[in-house]
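Moderator note: this is an archived Q&A kept for reference. The question asked for a predicted structure of one protein chain; the sequence and the answer are reproduced below.
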Amino acid sequence: MWLPTRKAVTLPTPQQALPGRPEPMAVPASHFVNGHPLVPPFPAGMATAIFGLGCFWGAERKFWQQPGVYTTAVGYAGGATPNPSYEEVCTGRTGHTEAVLVVFDPAVVDYETLLTVFWESHDPTQGMRQGNDIGTQYRSALYTFGETQRRAAERSRDRYAAALDKRGYRPITTEISEAPPFYYAEGYHQQYLAKNPGGYCGLGGTGVSCPTGIAEPVEA
């Protein structure tokens, strides 16, 4: 019998996943840091990316600090449960990982730069964990929009894996797949570390620099 825990390290099947709900979570109308909207529609010319790199509080801050990023939001992606709550995700019975939605202006910051932020901000070799944060919701993931992003993500993974291997790290476990539905997290999670500057941030990179020239330019 499959028994859920708050530190589940095996993804549930769709049949095991919690049912969720049709209603999305209510989120603030604007970003706490820059005042831009968290939900579409976004201005013309913006591009979108989704990153999973451990606890989304610290991960989101990494991206909103980047020049050219229009807005960010935290949520859940990669699982089977629609519109899950944080508590449901933590049981391991939704299949989601904690994720950051990043809306950016490719004329100012390219996807390659965001990939560098992603790789250098966490340890992508740890499987279902980041440091002391253990569970399926902490797995590393790149959810891509379109073929160009997918190729860029895979190329960056391969080159960063080679750099990590030279330093004695295990193989990268990052999940790369087409962007699934992104379910917004509860309002109190959005821009959490801006609202709570002393709050928990469990992110920790490997200290290995991401090689330059790892990806093709990504069109808007």
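Archived answer notes: The helical segments are 56-64, 86-90, 111-120, 146-166, 192-195.
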